[in-house]
Amino acid sequence: MQFDKRKSGISLIDDLPWGSHFCQFYQNTEDLGEILMPFFRAGLENNEFCVWVTPDTLGADEAEAALGKAVPHFGDYARNGQIEIIPAARWYAAGGKSGRSVVSRVDKAVTAGFDGLRLACNVFSGKKGRRALTCYGTDVVSRYHVIGVFTYPRDEFDAIGLMDVVKNHRFALLKNAGRWEIIESSGARTIRDALKRSEEELQSLFSNMSEGFAYHRMILDDKGNPCDYVFLNVNEAFERLTGLRRENIVGKKVTEALPGIENDDADWIGRYGKVALTEKPDHFDIYSERLGKWYSISAFCPHKGYFAVTFSDITERKQALESLASSEERFRSLAETASDAIISADSDGKIFFWNRAAESMFGYSSSEAFGRPLTMIMPGRYCEDHEKGMGRFISTGMERVIGRSVEFAGLRKDGVEFPLELSLSRWNTRQGLFFTGLIRDITERKWAEEEIMRLNEELKQHVIHLEAAN
């Protein structure tokens, strides 16, 4: 993808992705200069840390002088510590054979705030008379933000040895009849074509994915602590989900693109800095005060000092959850202060809500009631009918009882029966069927009804006696 491409500086070569390495066959220092001068100039001008591992035939002073003539403002780059020139013997003695030297320079580049490492490395000469020289570090280059060119003395190879070398690289540069040519082995061409198809597929995915995606480089302060980061690329979904336009933020620091973000309670820089430096992924839901939205974010580190994020806007989901929580709190507040018992149970008849009025009415605390069957508050003679009724209720819904009041007998913890009035409601969720009962103790009402019936009977008898007397 485009954010992974770097200018090669060499007219024969297109832009190269990080992790690329090619080789150059040279016959003299002039050949080296024709390729390496524009190669390093492009790296210096594009904020890359440059390392030149020179052959024994080229001294460090001579290499620096050549760069000074070829690269405008080279002195400024050198004073800023953006380039290092080191003899091949010292490079390989300090870990060049194992790749440690490359990794240490990558870390140095990231710590200093550069985009990556640009390396030109003369191959290990080994014993004289060998047809093929030994090249170390290509495996390391392919795993990091590095672009490397490995230089080979042309006179050390015959045609077969030359092609053996080309197999180990993306391509080779070779001078014939005064002109530079690009040489690829058949295997390299196959790999290149496969990479091109893969890049096209990734670009299509990158552009069309529904989640936002952004790629960044972390910036560290003098103490090595994260202090800012730079947008390297974003996809179309990023623009849609954040309202930020690609052309306004790519290449900019986040503190420039989003002023004040360094003071955000979310600590974006610190959190992403931890991912970029420890290479440990992170996932979290967070609210952006600056954008006024909730995001679900996954952050990961493709290379040390860099991080990428994929994210989705979960503002509506968060608002729905907050609304649901608010509704639940209101329900709980009303239920706990209600004078009637409110009991909720699942499709198995197991209790999961029991308010204070239910505690007072039945004598069981909420902890005693949770998870127990509804039959514990019913006289034993009704339990069998209850089980059958539950089966019919679940299978048919028994719409005739929903929202209507029915009377039955309840059973307190102390074994005392009393009359109840029940109103049922139900709801379906992904987890299954649930229902809630509103229960009222109608003992006093029943007593009053019986008293009225008794008084009515006495009045009736009194009227009969009056009529008889008359």
Description:
It is a single chain. With 470 residues, this protein is of the alpha/beta class. It is 41% helix and 27% strand. It has 17 helices and 19 strands. The strands form 4 sheets. A 7-stranded mixed β-sheet has the order 5-4-6-7-3-8-9, sandwiched between helices.
The whole-angstrom Rg is 40 Å
**C-alpha termini separation:** 113 Å
Biggest sheet strand order reads 5-4-6-7-3-8-9
Tally of extended strands?
19
Q: Please state the average pLDDT score.
A: 83
Largest sheet: 7 strands, mixed
Give the CA-based shape. Answer: rod-shaped
**Class of secondary structure makeup:** alpha/beta
Q: Which stretches of 5+ consecutive residues score pLDDT under 50?
A: none
Which percent range describes the beta-strand content? 25-35%
**Overall helicity:** 40-55%
Which tags fit this structure?
470 residues, alpha/beta, seven-stranded mixed sheet, five-stranded antiparallel sheet, 19 strands, 41% helix, rod-shaped
